[in-house]
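The methods section describes the discrete structure representation at length, but only in general terms. Each protein is reduced to its one-letter sequence and a matching series of backbone shape codes. I believe one specimen quoted in the main text would settle the matter. An entry of this sort, consisting of the sequence and the corresponding backbone structure tokens, reads as follows.
***
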Amino acid sequence: VKNTYETLGDRAPKPCAIGDAHGVAMAFLEPGTTVTPFPFQHPELLNNEIRIHVTHAGLCHSDIFESTLGWGENVNFPLVTGHEIVGVVEKVGERVSRFNVGDRVGFGVWRECCEQYESCRECRNGFDNLCPKAKLTYDPYFGGYATSFQAHASHFYKISDDFPGNAAPLFCAGLTVFSPLNTHMRAGMKVGVVGVGGLGHLGLKFARAMGAEVTAISTNPHKEEEAKSFGAHHFLNSRDEQQMKDAASSFDFILDTAIQINIDQDCKLIKPRGLLNIVGIPDAKENLNFNLFTILGKNINLTANPVGSRWEGDQMLEFCRVHDVYPLVEEYKFADCQVAVNSLAHGVPHYPKFRNVMETASFMETFTPSK
């Protein structure tokens, strides 16, 4: 565990009295799942940065993995998570020309990359998400669980006035599943989506809109009706041995969005020369054991995807606008952030269905940020 202030030095957000605050964050002050209201001031706005008023912030399960050290102990505290952000531009650095005060914007998982297009192959080819110097939105920086957010202008998305603010999960969950489907899937393919949750329900929507014959694959038979409402043509109960036997070697492509990943089971369902793409990430303590012969014997392509690049994000936003693909969310007041976190981390009073999102408008009725 590390200290945010020591890591960032004079570029660290500074705690302050609420009357002097640029924003209020909901911060994890120590490892765990407890958030604390945290008034802060941003560091000085650099000439290539913008500052926004956050209107909506999605909660992603990776936030909980980070706060509980589930992906390792190399985490800075205080920790302000959140990489599914929608807001309105409040301040613009002198060298920023793409945004103006009042623009609506979105922000996702990637904070910045090296942008050295002559020397960096990934940035040059449009894969800034794979840049070896890419930085994540939060840790050590403050993320989107806040009323104000500041970052390099390069990774903000300009969004339209009719973009629903509570669709903020598109900037992580959406782009996570859109990227592999857009890359590997073709219309007419038989596509299976494992998991009908925060990632999976969007995977079903995208795959259907892209022209696939879509099957939802779940351990919970009670999710069949919901899965079909998201676009699934078929439903496969992965705990039903006969159903699984009948579906063997029938899929061209499987997108596995589950946290509990069963590679052998997935591969039994895929046709020879088919493709399995994994986007769910388990706890670091979980070892993915699988039989290599299951993959080798059918010449299956096994791939995995991080969140997509900026240009894929632009493609996704246009696709969502044209095909009306948006996440199903439960909305919480910013002041009730702890309730939203408890839902995500502990299922209290229930687990998210399907993504949790906070809105800040109710909080801003009683908080006036310092300029």
Observations:
- Residues 59 and 356 are 5 Å apart (CA to CA).
- The two ends are 33 Å apart (CA to CA).
